[in-house]
Amino acid sequence: MEPEWTKQIPSTAICNFYYFFFVVYAVIFALSIITVIGTAITMKPNSPMMFPLLANVILTSLIGGTIMLFYYLMCDRALLAKETKAPDHVY
């Protein structure tokens, strides 16, 4: 199923690639959460831009958080793929 040329790529290289993007999206997620808190504190409650701005930042944080977890899972799977499986039964 896997092409021959991709089998030469070590799992740690794949994990490092996905881990880099995990960190990038973790920073985006953290900044968007800080932005939500900062916006909620500094803007007037009756401001017409309050709801659209907060909705945009919350949507950004949800997307960033989801992608962040996806990249973490891909890194984790890349490392687990090369480990040997434990036997299904124990005597």
Keywords:
single chain, 91 residues, mainly alpha, 2 helices
Describe it for me?
- It is a single chain.
- This protein has 91 residues and is mostly helical.
- It has one domain.
- The longest helix has 32 residues.
- The mean pLDDT is 77.
Q: What's this entry about, in short?
A:
The chain has about 90 residues and is mainly α. The protein is built from two helices and no strands.
Range of helix content: 55-70%
End-to-end distance, in Å? 34 Å
Percent strand equals under 5%
| Low-pLDDT segments, ≥5 res | none
Query: What is the string of helix and strand elements?
Result: HH
Determine the structural class based on helices, strands and strand pairing: mainly alpha
**Main sheet properties:** none
Mean pLDDT: 77
Q: What's the number of structural domains? A: 1
Helix count equals 2
Rg over alpha carbons: 20 Å
Count of DSSP E strands? Answer: 0
Structural shape? rod-shaped
Ordered list of secondary-structure elements with their pairings:
Blueprint: H1 11-42, H2 50-80
Helix pairs in contact: 1-2
